[in-house]
Specification:
The protein is mainly α. Helices cover 58% and strands 0% of the residues. The protein is elongated.
Length: 71
Amino acid sequence: MVNSSEIGAAIRARRVKEHVTLEEMAALTGIGINTLSRLERGVGNTQLKVLLKVLETLGLELSLLPRRTMY
């Protein structure tokens, strides 16, 4: 299972690869720089809609896969 730090690191890596600054991401998404920074560091409890907006802006998507059968 992936954790918030790994998600944040993947988001930051994509943003840096695309040469987008935090300030530019804030302008593109309407999300504050502090919120974006916390998301990238895996700190706090980011709202799902914020995460989805960031992923969409960076051309990333979220996939859900079953880990194992519950029975």
